[in-house]
């Protein structure tokens, strides 16, 4: 009888598909860890898994493998293929947006919008899951990443802009959003005013100080490494920069001390960068480094019992494939034949470029013997010497660019190195840009309420909100409260926008009544009261200025200070 029942259960599992869970069925948890391997196509995951298995026969699976549960369709508001800004923005806000938009409502494009967009909301900043967790529940919030901190994905969690490249708008917002822990790249991008604000409000701030970060016991911390982005994991000097796993563990250690719980976003940023460069070494090794960070998060979640973990890329990139048409007979090659050479590379394309530029030309073959396992052929060496930004080439720059070598060399040394690495493997690429296929979805929930099957990026936002017991409508409500137009908030008062003094500064909004005055500077959470501005109001959200419509987006509560 027991055997019959078992067979019936198995048959039901085969016949009846797993039902996608509805937001109202999700069991809320105390903590949420979201991990995003930027620009990671499924083939990139396969490549990393095969490389790990080849190098470590006892590790055939990744840390994420037991938790794979579906796929995610990601896209922009008006295009099936999105960049990191609108795709992660949708995870954070529940609305798809346009290329380059950071948690900002898109301009409507009726002929192309995938879902109808409200033209009246164009450019409005949208409250994120991270911001809601902090504002509604008093949760600690953290960001870990390997790019520079104002880059698209971390910015999507804690800043708002229609232009992802405006770091001068984004960086101060991230500092003034009162995040609990920030660890990643970008020492030169933290404005002096923002650093002063952090220190004045009890933060430890570390720049290229690994020992300081490791020893820090303060509850609030910013730790930045590298002038801009951090090094690829395989190129990283472990005495100078932490791994993404170590950064994740440090962030969890600090955030978990908050009795209200926490929200942490961890981004494996440079899988995407390597994919853009068509560098399979950077893609596979940074994906493996990211997977170790996932392992740390999952380990904490399993022990903690009150933590959900969601892992998913924001989009695909590069059209990478294990197998390339020009690699004859690739489909019959053994595991060793496919992955041995890849395992021999000890640097990324960027790492090779930096090393050959820092050593005499006479040492090039020694470098490749040690870090690639082969010597360059005469043709490859000649092609290297023709790269325009190869500092130690014996060929004068004016004489470089031999057309006969065009298939091998690139004007950029990094590009040449990536092509060289790829040519010595059977890995192929269709593009150096983003791609539109679905991405993988993995999740852990202590009570098993998982997002199964194919989910849209909008549905993923609903799931993330539900993990905190939030309905998506709450994000809309918070957006209306936090980011109302100044013309609506101060419609009964005298408003004047004072233009920026120069290109490096921002306009100022001055609001008056008969007895009181507010002076409002954008991209911070500080408002000054009085004609002399001696009294400060510290807001729970940042103020955003949009030059496209000459509008300040700010909290509705500010009108109360003039009553």
What can you see in these coordinates?
With 563 residues, the protein is α/β, with parallel strands linked by helices. It has three domains: 34-320 and 432-481, 3-Layer(aba) Sandwich (Alkaline Phosphatase, subunit A), CATH 3.40.720.10; 322-428, no CATH class; 483-562, 2-Layer Sandwich (Copper Amine Oxidase, Chain A, domain 1), CATH 3.30.457. It is built from 19 helices and 22 strands. The strands form five sheets. The chain has a ten-stranded mixed sheet with strand order 5-6-4-3-7-1-8-13-2-14, sandwiched between helices. A hairpin with a 4-residue loop joins strand 17 and strand 18 (517-520).
Q: Quick gist of this model?
A:
The protein has 563 residues and is α/β, with parallel strands linked by helices. It has 19 helices and 22 strands. The N and C termini lie far apart (77 Å).
Which terms summarize this structure?
single chain, 563 residues, alpha/beta, Alkaline Phosphatase, subunit A, Copper Amine Oxidase, Chain A, domain 1, 3 domains, 10-stranded mixed sheet, 5-stranded antiparallel sheet, 19 helices, globular
CATH topology of the largest domain: Alkaline Phosphatase, subunit A
End-to-end gap: 77 Å
Question: Strand order of the main beta sheet, please?
Answer: 5-6-4-3-7-1-8-13-2-14
The global form is globular
Main sheet summary = 10 strands, mixed
Number of domains: 3
Tally of individual helices:
19
Which percent bin holds the helix content?
Answer: 25-40%
Q: Give the name of the CATH superfamily of the largest domain.
A: Alkaline Phosphatase, subunit A
Low-confidence segments, ≥5 residues, pLDDT <50? 1-16
Reading off the top of the CATH hierarchy, the class of the largest domain is best stated as Alpha Beta
Mean pLDDT: 94
Fraction in beta strands = 15-25%
């Amino acid at each position: 009888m027991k055997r019959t029942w078992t067979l019936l259960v198995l048959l039901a599992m085969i016949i009846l598909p797993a039902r996608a869970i509805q937001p109202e069925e999700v069991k809320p948890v105390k903590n949420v860890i979201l991990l995003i391997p930027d620009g990671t196509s499924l083939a990139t995951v396969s490549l990393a898994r095969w490389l790990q298995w080849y190098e470590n026969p006892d590790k055939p699976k990744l840390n994420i493998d037991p938790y794979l549960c579906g796929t995610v369709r990601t896209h922009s508001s008006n295009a099936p293929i999105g960049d990191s800004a609108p795709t992660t923005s949708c995870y954070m806000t529940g609305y798809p947006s346009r290329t380059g938009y950071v948690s900002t409502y898109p301009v409507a494009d009726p002929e192309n919008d995938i879902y109808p967009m409200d033209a009246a909301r164009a450019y409005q900043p949208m409250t994120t899951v991270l911001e809601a967790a902090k504002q509604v529940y008093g949760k600690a919030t953290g960001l870990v990443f390997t790019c520079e901190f104002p880059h698209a994905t971390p910015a999507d969690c804690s800043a708002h802009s229609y232009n992802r490249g405006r770091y001068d708008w984004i960086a101060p917002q991230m500092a003034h959003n009162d995040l609990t822990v920030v660890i990643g790249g970008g020492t030169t991008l933290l404005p002096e005013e923002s650093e002063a604000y952090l220190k004045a409000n009890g933060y430890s701030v570390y720049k290229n100080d690994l020992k300081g970060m490791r020893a820090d016991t303060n509850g609030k911390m910013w730790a930045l490494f590298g002038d801009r982005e951090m090094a690829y994991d395989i190129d990283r000097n472990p005495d100078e920069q932490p791994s993404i796993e170590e950064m994740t563990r440090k962030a969890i250690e600090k955030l978990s001390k908050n009795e209200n719980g926490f929200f942490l976003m961890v981004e494996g940023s440079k899988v995407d960068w390597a994919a853009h460069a068509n560098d399979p070494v950077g893609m596979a090794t940074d994906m493996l480094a990211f997977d170790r960070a996932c392992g740390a998060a999952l380990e904490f979640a399993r022990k903690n019992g009150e933590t959900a973990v969601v892992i998913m890329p924001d989009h695909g990139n590069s059209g990478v494939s294990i197998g390339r048409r020009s690699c004859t007979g690739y489909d019959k090659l053994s595991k060793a034949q496919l992955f041995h050479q890849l395992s021999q590379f000890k640097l990324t394309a960027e790492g090779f470029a930096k090393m050959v530029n820092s050593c005499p030309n006479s040492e090039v073959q020694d470098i490749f013997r040690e870090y690639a396992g082969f010597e360059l052929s005469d043709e490859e060496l000649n092609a290297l010497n023709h790269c325009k930004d190869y500092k130690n080439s014996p060929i004068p720059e004016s004489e470089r660019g031999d057309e006969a070598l065009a298939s091998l060399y690139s004007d950029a040394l990094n590009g040449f190195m990536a092509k060289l690495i790829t040519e010595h493997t059977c890995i192929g690429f269709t593009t150096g840009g983003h791609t539109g296929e679905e991405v993988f979805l993995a999740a852990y929930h202590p009570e098993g309420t998982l997002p199964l099957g194919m989910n849209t990026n909008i549905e993923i936002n609903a799931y993330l909100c539900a993990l905190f017991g939030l309905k998506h409508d709450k994000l809309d409500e918070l957006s209306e409260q936090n980011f109302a137009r100044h013309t609506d908030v101060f419609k009964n008062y005298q408003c004047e926008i004072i233009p920026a003094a120069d290109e490096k500064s921002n306009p100022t909004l001055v609001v008056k009544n008969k007895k009181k005055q507010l002076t409002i500077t954008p991209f911070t959470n500080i408002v000054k009261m009085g004609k002399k501005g001696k009294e400060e109001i510290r807001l729970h959200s940042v103020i955003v200025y949009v030059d496209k419509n000459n509008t300040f987006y700010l909290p509705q509560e500010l009108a109360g200070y003039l009553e």
